[in-house]
Amino acid sequence: MARILLLLVVLGCLGAAPANAAPPRTLRLVSAGLGPVDASIVAISAGAERAFFATTESLVGDDQNARLDYYARDQDGVVALISDGLTGSDAPSDLRISASGARAWFVTRQQLLPVADTDSAADVYERGPAGLRLISAGNGALDAALVGGADDGSIVVFATSEAVPGTGDPDGMDGMVDLFVRRADGVVALLTADTAAPTIAAEVAPDGSRVQFTTNDVLAPGDDDPAADRYSVPIAGGAYTLVTDETGPVEAHVSTPDLVTTWFTVGGSTYVSSGGAVTLIAAATILGATDDARRLFIETTAALDPANDGDAQPDVYERRIDGTFRLATPGTAAAPAFRGATSEGVVVVATTEALVPDDLDGLSDLYRFGVTGPPTLLTGGVGSFTAIFATSRNVAATRLLLDLDVDVPASGDVNGQPDAYEIGAESFRPAAGGLAAGSSALPITLTPDGSRLLVTTTTAVAGSGDGDAAVDVYEASFAAPAYEHAPTLTGTARVGRTLTCGPAPVDGEGVTASATAWLRNGVPIADATEPVRRVVAADAGADLFCRVSATNAIATTTADSPLVRIAPRALSSSLTGSPIVGTTVRCPRFVGASSVRYRWLRGARTIAGARSRSRRVRAADLGRRLTCRATAASGSASTIVDARLTIPGRCVVPYVLGLPAFDARTALARRGCRSRTVRAGGIGVLPGLALGTTPGAGSSLRNGARVTVRIRR
Length: 713
Known about the structure:
Layout: E1 25-29, E2 39-44, E3 50-55, E4 69-74, E5 79-81, E6 93-97, E7 104-108, E8 123-128, E9 131-134, E10 144-149, E11 155-160, E12 178-183, E13 188-190, E14 200-204, E15 210-215, E16 229-234, E17 241-242, E18 252-255, E19 261-266, E20 269-274, E21 277-282, E22 285-289, E23 295-300, E24 315-320, E25 325-327, E26 337-341, E27 347-351, E28 365-369, E29 376-377, E30 387-389, E31 400-404, E32 419-423, E33 428-430, E34 445-446, E35 452-457, E36 472-478, E37 482-483, E38 489-491, E39 498-501, E40 506-507, E41 513-520, E42 523-524, E43 532-534, E44 543-551, E45 556-560, E46 564-565, E47 569-570, E48 584-586, E49 590-591, E50 595-602, E51 605-606, E52 614-616, E53 625-634, E54 637-646, E55 650-652, H1 661-670, E56 674-680, E57 690-694, E58 700-702, E59 706-712
Parallel strand pairs: 56-59
Antiparallel strand pairs: 1-36, 2-3, 3-4, 4-5, 6-7, 7-8, 8-9, 10-11, 11-12, 12-13, 14-15, 15-16, 16-17, 18-19, 19-20, 20-21, 22-23, 23-24, 24-25, 26-27, 27-28, 28-29, 30-31, 31-32, 32-33, 34-35, 35-36, 37-40, 38-39, 39-43, 41-42, 41-44, 44-45, 44-46, 47-49, 48-52, 50-51, 50-53, 53-54, 55-58, ...
């Protein structure tokens, strides 16, 4: 049974949104060329590093066959021929790529490497960094088919009924298809040993660890029926694991990309297989599952949520990882057609039922069901339409793509042609609006994150370099986030105060992250990521500004606030030194100052010529207040500090009984007294403390007179 594929969408905005609510996608021509030759989409790498297309036009000199070839175009515009060397009538087919697009695999009957490939059967080739490489070993008359490869290109799996020499395959030439792996070192190994029936519908885990396939063979205990079952086998070799361990043929299956968890339907019931254990989910059919294995979407007539499901009509249900069920389409009477879901549980369906008052046409429309709240009508008022839904690998793509054959009102689509539409986080709109001709050819290929997609059109988009009326491939990407204006910076630019980085509105689709950072002299400050910042000493004298950033799948855009210079910070607000004639007093130091100017005042009058940081106390200062006015500057920011000290006119001896020696000397210095200490005997205080002074407390002496402090032994 063919694998059911689910295209996941991230629909962060659950309310109704006009079709043109998001910024338009920009278009870039991929299939360069001016001849009247059509081109078709093939693939795009996960990060849109390379886009792949097919055309019969010769776009490079090495392409001389006038046949269909595969090409790749890099983001820098370089076009490379992937399937070069073809000379006959055979065209290459089934191109697959590694995640980055660095390696491309395709199938051809041409002997592109005649020394290694001596037969005319179909073989698998690789075009990679080292050039062309033959993947499918063997030179019999039997074809090989490409199964897939690891995301990093380290292994490639192919299928053939030929007995590949040296692999231990005993059943060649009997029509039994086996799976083989070619590793990066060139070694080819048989994966499906001991199989008699053909192996089909095979898938390779992205990490290259395992392959899952379908076969009628009984390869493991528990497989007790002759019907087709899914098996898994390690790429490195090992035992088979029966995935679909239930009686009867597998009717449908869907797996996580790593092939660890598989949901499957047998006999109208859905099961989950993970870690070797198989569990019944419900009497239901599979619609799809999220790639993280946390949500399974099924269709069933059973009322798995009786409180909300009161009819016997088919409904879409979500089965969560904890085993509970949620009715994803409440309020529907007619059976809705499932069209996609998100990892958060948002579901998109098509139905002829009018689920909102605005749906008046009685025809099929698209609706979006959020996890909570009413459904949103997406295609209201368009009349009858045909929607062809594009599918993608079961990964968390952020867009649901469809081919819509009518022009949706207010969408910008007025060409009367079928067009590719997308349902995104903030939009429902044409994938490439404004085209004069259709852009609807399927498959529509998109990156896993949904940021870029490939569309085709006969329109020659102005400025793209497209000068013909043939079908060409374009890459469409939504724009990087754009800020309407820079963030504001408010507050006081001084140490100890706060600055606030004001909000900056951003336009942009699919913004997944917004951040604030603070920078000092252009260098990010570690752990400074909050909108409000308290200015610290390390900021003094520096240029500070905030930077906001918004990220979507295209790019990260930043915007910087105006910068502000933080004023220097004084380390003290007082003069240092003693108010004694003949001693030196000094102004405070600063952090973050590029220059400091000093001015000394006696009382309110400036002292002529006093412009240095230090000053010797003079007799003229006795009884007066000395002030050092320091002006520290850093650019346009400055700090002014007035450090004051009154010079006593007389040395009036203070009371120091019981003080430690240092404190006693300090108290004397503040009164304008010099001092010395002597050890003396006495009582009344502890050893090491002052017994008193000579002369005694209260004595009035000249400024600078020496006083003796007696310290108890």
